[in-house]
Design brief:
The structure holds two protein chains of two kinds.
Chain A lengths: L1 H15 L9 H11 E2 L16 H30 L6 H34 L6 H11 L7 H15 L13 H12 L1 H4 L7 H5 L13 H7 L8 H6 L11 H14 L4 H20 L4 H4 L4 H4 L3 H8 L10 H21 L7 H35 L1
Chain B lengths: L3 E3 L13 E5 L7 E3 L9 E3 L6 E2 L4 E5 L2 E7 L4 E8 L5 E8 L18 H11 L6 E3 L3 E2 L9 E4 L10 H5 L3 H12 L6 E6 L6 H4 L5 E6 L7 H8 L8 E4 L1 H13 L5 E7 L7 E6 L5 H4 L11 E5 L6 E3 L11 E6 L5 E2 L55 H9 L3 H6 L11 H6 L6 H15 L2
Parallel strand pairs in B: 1-14, 2-17, 12-13, 12-15, 13-14, 16-20
Antiparallel strand pairs in B: 3-9, 4-6, 5-8, 6-7, 8-9, 10-11, 10-15, 16-17, 18-19, 18-20
Helix pairs in contact in B: 3-6
The chains are: A mainly alpha, B alpha/beta.
Amino acid sequence: MKALHNLIEKKVKPHFEQDGKLSKFYRTFEAFETFLFVQGNVTTRGSHIRDAMEMKRTMFHVLIALIPALLFGMWNVGYQHYQAIGMDVDFIDQFLFGLYRVLPIIIVTYASGLLVEFLFATIRNHEVNEGFLVTGMLLPLIVPVTIPLWMVALATVFAVIIGKEVFGGTGMNILNPALLARAFLFFAYPAQFSGDEIWIYAQVHAPEQLVDGFSGATSLAVLAAGNLESMPSVMEMFLGTIPGSIGETSTLAILLGAFVLVATGVGSLRIMLSVVAGGLFMGLLFNLFAVNEFMEVPAYYHLIMGGFAFGTVYMATDPVSASQTGTGKYIYGFLIGVITLLIRVVNPAFPEGMMLAILFMNVFAPLIDHYVVRANVKRRLKRVKPAEA
Amino acid sequence: MSKVIRIKRGLNIPLKGEAEKILQTPSRAKEYAVKPTDFHGLFPKMMLEEGERVKAGTPLFYDKYNEDVVFTAPVSGTYTRLVRGAKRRILEVRIEPDEADDHIDFGAADPASISREEIIDKLLKSGLWPAIRQRPYSIIASREDKPRDIFISAFNSAPLAPDLDFVINGSEGDFQKGLDVLSHLTDGEVHLGIDAESTTSEAFTRAKGVRVHRFKGPHPAGNVGIQIHHIRPVNKGDIVWYLDVQHVVTIGRLFETGIYDSRKVVALTGSEVENPRYYRVHAGVRLDNIAGNNVLQEEGVTPRFISGDALTGEKISANGFIGFYDSQATVIPEGDKPELIGWLIPNMQRFSVSRTWPSFLMPWKKYRLDTNIRSGERPFVITGLYEKYLPMDILPMQLLKAIMINDIDMMENLGIYEVAPEDFALCEFVCPSKIEIQSVIRDGLDNIQKEFA
């Protein structure tokens, strides 16, 4: 280990330093170097000792939490495909089929996103931030597997530049970059991102092989169309053996991820619970005043359909774009749940509401925080009066 | 008895090297020093030439902007050397002690029979005035002010901090005398914060003429700023004063005997100390006097010497000097070695409040923490974390952001007057973005002070 470190310090690093040939790429070098080694930098002022936690480890644990959804998503891509063309293959083949289709999306996302990140770190001369490690995994999981790779690259670049860097980089952004990319795709390329013929690989790439009368509609689309008979069962929706974006279908896999996030303290349980509470509240309200079949759907169905679970666990909890105050988080989460159901049930234009609800509340999070802070200020000012009286 | 104030939020960092309750009195040190850098915002003007003889209590320098405030020699001897740093800033005024033990007689006095002005004059002349600090700003108090209240914390909750019950042993009378003196400086009350469980010394629990408050909870419950917040918070326009227990004792002795007797008890602590214990020394003692043969030598490990505790102390050299306000020296290893993929590999020797590290599984374990930062500085990302380590009705992240953009109104509204850097030390410790939070708070206090100067 020492030899490796010496080698890097003595042979490689000089090229990237001020007078080196590659000094322009210092930030890129530094990113890899700090990835490989925790540097021997010591505290100079303030607290002499520091907690072992830092950003790399934080982001890494979000990635761990995404693994169940990712693996399940890969298998489900294969499963859905072979179902659609009526072929019976074993588990391994289903998984490999998905792996083969999903991996390029992930690679393209990371490659294009990191390129932009490194570029901005170099231009602005700051360390490369770890935020994209998570964004780069989130984005592939919320797109349909049929997405053309150039769109993946375009959306990623859009997300990093418009979603993050224009605001000053990681930690400064208003919207969740991965969701912004998804919204960008949704509105820029509606043909590829809505409807019933986009969720399964075979629908786009091998439509002639499809089984007769096959429908690849998501459960939300089925509901919106009023075809209650063709709804998947609750168990199917919970396990996730249904069409949908790559990582969003399995509530079970996402719950595993939620467990990792909450157990390690990386994700905010407060937000997750309040999103669920908001969704259930609105669902029950719809049940009470139901005038159509969609409104009669049991409230808990909404938690296991579409992107609700995924959004709740991985998207709404993004600490940068969520509310930053404790009380604010309750309000923020609750309203995400409520608005998601409003969009799903009341708005006929969009079958799914999770993405828009989170983006909408991202925009309002600073306002919520503003009022929470104001309340704190008021409470503090009030203190003066009894003291004087 | 008064009700117990429970501090729920905070953290006791489990460091190795707590001082054993053994008190030693080492022989005279080779050098002592007064460090102007101990006093924030001080602009020292020297009053002596190098080589002049001093007695204990001889003025060495004064504050240019506050000429009444003088700083005096803690021991008798010769003023040998002025150590300057960058931009010729005065860092140390060094004194070589002699055998004479001469001291200036400031005259014993009964605080009840002299006026407030006379008390203040005596404190100023003896060089003990700087022991009195104020909130807001956490700086030396001004004689022009009449504080609303005076606060003293009778327990220290910082990592490896000295047990003040042990420290006060034998000085109970002087402590009470010091309290009597202080009660004449304010029309309000003198508040004494004790630990509901661990404080047993009757000097604290039965202190007279003061109001005793009982606290219970983890660090920073022993910080005077936290106690003020829970007893009677500082609002805009308020000024309160605060002191350390040992300075109250020194003030008591001044009025009892008339001399500035700078002796105090210093705990030598930390994982790199062979036998951590307590020492009775004069203020400004050179560290090697107590730590000289008591620091572990390990191949490849550089020790870091700290005057104060590991969260808020000042880095000094092996031959550095203990600060004016410090009752503790800490020696921990430097973390100057790179670690292969150290951010990922589970390591039992690392401590973290985050459950992504295994330390939460071993709550009984004590750690030998080093000074490695672990990462470069990042913007704020994680939310809801600082709140868990700041037991005040203050929104830490919002206050920090207000300071960073220098929004004076917002800083005031969010409670800048109540805080000192030390209250945010735990936030700095846990910060996963490695932001230098204590420095940010100090900048904020400086900016506010300038704004109203």
